[in-house]
Specification:
By secondary structure, the protein is α/β, with parallel strands linked by helices. It contains ten helices and seven strands.
Length: about 270
């Protein structure tokens, strides 16, 4: 679903406003800088918000409900609430729902639920009711456990029968990962996370990518858990500015083949 220029312009205005509002906060999450994160990933995050905005406006869900799984720092929920009126709930790891961040979310009308996703193997999510829109963007690659128990709950009880879920993950076969392997590096920085945890660095347990996914992986995962893909694609996002010729060359090669692109995106529904 390609967003219109009007949708992109509205998102851009709200993105700027969100950046201004959150710039005074520290994330209380390791050494992460929220504004730097949002600047670095602006094109990708804006694109994800545009997909969801298109679904909300297409299905007239302005009075509906939206759930964000692992959606730190809450930008999608806040922007979409302002643009459409849809009400939002953010469920995320306790390390990310600090007092500072929780207060910020509540001031902006979000419900928050702290939950360690690894516990989905032993107990249900602490949520009730159905949601018309659910997002799980750039989240499950941080899990060193199976996402199947959570996704089974989503498709069986949380996603409305006419609702949509957007799932995005880094592409395990991207050009970046291929180049890392060819240069003799481990493409997944789990060892540094082990060291950070040992040094008691805040948030270290949820920082690294433990497993990334291919397009086929994501499709099989969704189908196994009771969903079906209405859209499934790989995607890359050019930086707002190029800082070097190497970056330009990388972006050129990055788009030569679908499997080289950096992300996999799926819009799905329950079967």
């Amino acid at each position: 679903m390609k967003p219109s220029n009007d949708q992109l312009e509205r998102i851009a205005r709200e993105y700027d406003a969100f950046m201004e509002e959150i710039s005074a906060l520290t994330s209380d999450y390791g050494e992460s800088d929220i504004k730097q994160y949002l600047t670095m990933h602006r094109v990708r995050i804006s694109s994800q918000i545009a997909v969801q905005l298109g679904l909300i406006e297409r299905d007239n869900l302005n009075d509906g409900t939206m759930l964000s799984l692992g959606g730190w720092p809450g930008i999608a929920l806040i922007i979409l609430n302002r643009l459409t009126g849809i009400s939002g709930t953010l469920l995320d790891h306790p390390a990310l729902l600090t007092d500072t961040m929780s207060s910020f979310y509540h001031e902006h009308g979000l419900e928050t639920v702290a939950f360690d996703f690894s516990e989905t193997t032993s107990r249900p999510l602490p949520l009730s009711g159905e949601f018309q829109i659910i997002e799980c963007c750039q989240c499950i690659e941080h899990w060193n456990f199976s996402p199947i128990p959570l996704f089974k709950q989503v498709f069986s009880t949380l996603l409305a029968s006419s609702g949509n879920m957007l799932i995005t993950v880094p592409n395990a076969t991207s050009l970046y990962r291929r180049l890392a392997v060819l240069s003799g590096q481990n493409p997944y920085p789990a060892m540094q996370s082990f060291i950070d945890v040992d040094n008691q660095k805040d948030g270290a347990e949820v920082a690294p990518h433990w497993r990334e996914y291919t397009k086929g992986d994501l499709q099989r995962l969704i189908a196994h858990c009771g969903g079906t893909c209405s859209e499934l694609r790989t995607a890359s996002y050019a930086p707002a500015t190029y800082n070097s010729m190497g970056q330009r060359i990388y972006s050129l090669f990055n788009n030569l083949h679908p499997n080289f692109k950096e992300n996999v995106e799926a819009v799905c529904r329950k079967v």
